[in-house]
TrEMBL record:
Domain of life: Bacteria
Entry-linked Pfam families: HATPase_c_4, SLFN_AlbA_2
Protein name: MloB
Domain Schlafen AlbA-2: from-to ranges: 19-137
Organism the protein comes from: Acidithiobacillus ferrooxidans
């Protein structure tokens, strides 16, 4: 935290008419047990009050909030032979990044403790959660109504609401964010005054008011509309989407093209998709009268899979962002984070996203399909182009989607044929139809005189438990996916 912001923050805290549930004033009381309970209580209270941080300020008289100075020295205080901050950290669950700061406040020595609001679960000290009620610090379990309210707040808390940049002037905010693109993509007229611009940015949770008349840029605002992601912390900058093209089948082959994203997702998305499309090999297609070149992969499939990687990634995994890799025979799109839905159920399950605000705003900007239709469109496009079935798989702490270049049925592996059969049955089912031998033959490009080949694939998919007869009593009724 900058010295200027620290002083502005203390001014703001001291001007409050009374202590709040997330602010505590002390003079010299440095009891370690008390501080531990306060960290738990204030962290939980800050989340209840929708505050990103809570504060304890030493050197302030409780009655009139006058700055009188303190003798408390957290950096030199020991508790059971350990430094105070280490002793506290070992007794707090989950771990939170609290921070003591020595402050020269107009010549008066103060100590400020900054406490992040609870993010994933109630913060406990020595296996007990506390909360702030008035000037009291009771156990949270003794107040079930507050515990219930806290869990409701925690469930809706998301990475998007975090702070990407703090204590900026209005000019600095507008210099870092492409606000004109925001208005253009959301279909809103650009206001003719600064207040109108900030009102809209606040309404979409892209920026927040800070102390001292300054501003914060939220993670959501930075990741979508940053002119340069590198202007923000590494946790934001490393979320830039990367593209790498290889000259062969593996990552050991020569890198022919590389592009590291510099812009926020919203303003860089279309350019990235166009860049990939421009590098993509073309196949010659001969129609009834003309020859034409078609891209190796359907544009809608690439667009949807890239959008899904952006929306569904786990933003809390640091040092990793979405990655698009092009090989001579396939396109791989990887995003960090375990899936919230098993890959084989991507088509039929209602979509779940860790980043609801990000997903909602990208849909408003028409950068991705309406909720629940993106994967459908990928499967439809792949079948229309008679490509091998896409593969969705979990690899470590990441999800990888793979699009394969055109290949004849004879060149597909047995696993690919069975996967194509399952995906075809699922796509038919969600559109109110049933897979049959004839429809699978068409999907796989099998000539009618070789329909027995489709029957073999169906038997293999049945054996694998991926499909089942729609009506066992009527074999010609077709097949449905195992979950139908």
């Amino acid at each position: 935290m900058s010295e200027q912001r620290t002083l502005a923050l203390i001014d703001d805290l001291l001007q409050r008419p009374a202590e709040t549930s997330w602010v505590e004033f002390k003079e010299n009381n440095a009891d370690a047990q008390l501080i531990g309970k306060l960290i738990s209580a204030l962290s939980n209270a800050a989340r209840l009050a929708d505050q990103p941080f809570a504060y304890v300020l030493w050197g302030v008289r409780d009655g009139d909030h006058a700055a009188v100075g303190t003798t408390f020295m957290p950096s030199s205080q020991l508790q059971q032979g350990q430094p105070l901050d280490l002793w506290l950290a070992q007794r707090l669950q989950p771990a939170i990044a609290f921070n003591f700061e020595l402050v020269d406040y107009h010549g008066i020595r103060l100590v400020m403790l900054e406490i992040p609001a609870a993010a994933s679960s109630p913060v406990e000290f020595e296996r007990q959660a506390f909360v702030r009620i008035g000037s009291a610090t009771p156990r949270l379990s003794d107040h079930p109504e507050r515990l219930k309210a806290l869990w409701a707040k925690l469930q809706s808390y998301a990475w998007e609401t975090g702070i990407a940049a703090q204590f900026l002037s209005g000019d600095e905010v507008l210099a870092r964010l492409d606000y004109a693109a925001y208005f253009d993509l959301t279909g809103q007229p650009l206001p003719d005054n600064r207040q109108g611009i900030f009102d809209k940015l606040i309404a979409d949770h892209l920026v927040q008011a800070d102390v001292g008349g300054q501003w914060n840029i939220a993670n959501l605002g930075a990741i979508l509309f940053a002119k340069r992601l590198g202007d923000f912390s590494p946790s934001i900058a490393r979320k830039a989407i990367r593209f790498v093209a290889y000259g062969g089948l593996s990552r050991a082959d020569t890198v022919t093209h590389r592009q590291d994203g510099q812009k926020g997702y919203a303003i860089g998305f279309t350019g990235l998709v166009d860049f990939i499309d421009g590098l993509m090999p073309r196949n010659e297609f001969i129609g009834k009268a003309f020859r034409e070149e078609r891209p190796l992969y359907p544009a809608i499939a690439i667009r949807e899979l890239v959008a899904n990687a952006l929306i569904h990634q786990d933003m809390t995994i640091t040092g990793a962002g979405p990655l698009v890799e092009m090989f001579s025979d396939r396109l791989e799109i990887t995003n960090p984070g375990q899936p919230l839905v098993q890959p084989e159920r991507f088509l039929d399950f209602p979509p779940r996203s860790r980043n609801e605000a990000l997903a909602s705003l990208m849909r408003r900007m028409r950068l991705c399909e309406e909720q629940g239709t993106g994967i459908d469109k990928v499967f439809v496009a792949v079948e229309l182009h008679q490509l091998p079935p896409p593969d969705f798989r979990v690899e470590g702490d990441a999800v990888r989607a793979v699009l394969y270049a055109p290949r004849r049925f004879a060149d597909m592996t047995p696993q690919e044929r069975v996967r194509a059969c399952y995906q075809h049955a699922a796509l038919k089912y969600v559109t109110g139809q049933r897979m049959k031998n004839a429809s699978l033959s068409e999907r796989l490009g099998i000539d009618s005189q070789n329909a027995a080949q489709a029957s073999v694939v169906i038997r293999q998919a049945l054996k694998a438990g991926l499909i089942r007869p729609a009506d066992p009593a009527h074999p010609r009724a077709g097949y449905v996916p195992f979950w139908a």
